[in-house]
Give the backbone structure.
Amino acid sequence: MEVRVCICGCGRQLTGAKQQRRHPDCRRDERLARSKRWQAKKKLTDPDFQKREAARAASTYRADPELARQLLRDGARERHARDRLAALAAYGGSCTCCGEARPQFLTLQHPNKDGHKHRKELVGPRHRTSAGAFLRRLRKAGFPNDYKIEVCCWNCHMAIDLYGACPHQTEQPAG
């Protein structure tokens, strides 16, 4: 039996009907992207689109408020994860001290300890300075490096904040 692979380049093997050329997940992703492009175009060309979308969202909320809140939370969680990964990649992608590269362990650090000032300048004095808002503004600003942001793993970040230096930098090599 011939092993077929999805034509989009994802490398997934295809099973089922012989005429199938794309993996079902890839087809779903393609439909979603096409729908988002259509919505973006519609926003620009149809003046009543936003009113209809607001009415649709309100009816969804009235029908099932808990589901609507869950959808909002899920969307915010996905946006935050996407923005965080983009920021980590833009500022180096691995810990500047120990080289840790797993994104689950990485954080953004202001080595001059001016992070609060930077967040207030970037987000604004009257707005929340949550991590999500900060990451969104960094992305929209093109990930500037005017405050010398670094990527640090959580262990190095906490050691620098609590003790002034990371053990990776202060320990003498054994030998």
Remarks:
- The chain has a mean pLDDT of 83.
